[in-house]
Amino acid sequence: MSVAKGSETYSGEDIQVLEGLEAVRKRPGMYIGSTGPRGLHHLVYEVVDNSVDEALAGYCDKIEVWIHPDNSVTVADNGRGIPIDKHPKEKIPTVEVVLTILHAGGKFGGDGYKVSGGLHGVGVSVVNALSSRVEVCVCRDGGEHMITFNHGKTEQKLHRIGSAKHTGTKVTFWPDPEIFTETTEFDYSTLANRFREMAFLNKGLKIVLHDERDLDSEGNEHIETFQAAGGIVDFVKYLNDGKETLNKPIYFEAENNDGTVEVALQWSSSYSTNSVMAFANNINTHEGGTHMDGFKQAITRTLNDYARSKGLLKEKDANLSGEDAREGLAAIISVKLHDPQFEGQTKTKLGNTEIRPLVQNAVTRGLAEYLEENPTPAKRIVGKATQALKAREAARKAREMTRRKNVMDSFALPGKLADCSSKDASMSEIFIVEGDSAGGSAKQARDRKFQAILPLRGKILNVERAGLHRSLSSETISSLITAIGTNIGEDFDADKARYHRIIIMTDADVDGAHIRCLLLTFFYRYMPELINLGYIYIAQPPLYGLKKKNSRSPKIERYIYNDEALKAYLAEAPDADKFDIQRYKGLGEMDPEQLWETTMEPTNRTLLRVNIEDAAQAERVVSELMGDQVEPRKEFIQKHAKDVRFLDI
Ligand code: 28F
Predict the structure, then answer these.
(1) What angle do CA 534, 535, 539 make, to 5 degrees?
(2) Which end of the chain is less crowded, N or C, counting CB atoms within 10 A of the terminal residue's CB?
(3) Per-residue pLDDT averaged across 218-245, rounded?
């Protein structure tokens, strides 16, 4: 059946293509989650996942990715090459079907696992629909063939452009700026982190990332290769890098009709309980799910059974909690199943109930066997957990003692919380301010209807090294927990948050950066849900104030918020040399009015929302900063102190 429209005639299959493209371009968020930076990066994951599938099928062992200066991206693999034969049903080359018909890319029926990235395998046709141009080169059957697309529609039909001894597929795409209106610029570390994860999750797979935008002094592009011969064992080693470990990585795997599971785990002397990551078909299930639940229950039960059987836990002792058992644990759980059900707010929670017993039994058996066969590290692991239990008991007693009827009781909040009058958390915000002088001017500057101030005295305890339960008795930590109202760990309840904006406001110097980092460590370790909810912010006080030269009035003509902006202003503004430039070392140097209008007044201020994009990377940055190794921390803070961007981790 064909339909004439204007000068073109459309076949049935053309109409299917056009309707598909239309649907994707009209509601891109349905296919890639958003048209912001995350959706933009999903385009790359969709294309790379096709190459990973080819690798999982055993036909490809190298994937290369280029970020070009014009913000286009090329992905190439050495697989079999997308077939170019006429598709039996669609009567056009198979490669054209894969690129233009929605969900036509599914290569595996029953036997393999379609690894799905992005919003779980929407297919490369979505990338095509959301790109202004796509070029596909296929090398197979001795020739090199090319087909190009314009806004998802075939532009140059498939044609031979040369001979080829090797086989493979190469896709270059230009994200459509009419769709990606916020930005079409790719972030190197976002791609690098995802490829690092993919390499860990697919043992031996080699992914080479080229950034042609980043040239060194000789004009060579930045290249990084990701390959992990040890697979997820290398992943836990990476997570524990720089930490004192208690055992060699433990690895086991299992499979049944429902799918396969691989687990790697290694304890360290760190106190964090956030380094347990679970994946389903290579998707990072940030929200957990049945595989994670099975894993956690197996770890807790197996450690308790072993500890009691060896008399390391007395009859009278309470059981180790899940948190005790997971303190200092870095673990990767990777399940692969035929028909994954993703649930939750960001579709990153695994719902398949059938996978839970597979994981739970594998972990119970694997860990029990390891502990029996390795009594020395087993003793260290159980020792760490029982230490955590004792500290938790002590902290609970300390909390009981300091628990107050309400947060205004000065005994509970030695930091002297100046609360706001509104009781509506969604309207309320709390500024966590470093030191009493800044705290004082913030209290005068604020709008007490909806702004609370919590001055903290000096540096908060380094929660990574001291461990929360040990630092809980520190007044600062307990005043933070009490003021915020959600409690922590297993008692955490986001609905009890007394403010929906928790704003870290520290000085712009290295000390301020250190405090900010410690506070982020605290929130990242013990209230990560608040970060995921987008409640945590960093205030951006001005770095400079420009006053008219030799004028008697103290009036600031212009505030400047960072060094780049100052450089730009001095370069552009004709009368720039008529100003005295004052650099603000601390918040206390501004009077309350200035602090209000530059940093606290909602319509004028800029707040940086803290957004954890990659737990693995965040874990590494924070533990590198907060671990026992002093050197990495010092050089990292020096390097990043002025760059708040690294906080947007
Ligand atoms: C840079 C992006 O997309 N690589 C791909 C293949 C290989 C085959 C294939 C892809 C549709 C329904 C089969 C080749 N020979 N890299 C990629 N490599 N797709 S995508 O087949 C898709 C067809 O059935 C392939 C034999 N079988 C499969």
Answers:
(1) 105
(2) N
(3) 96
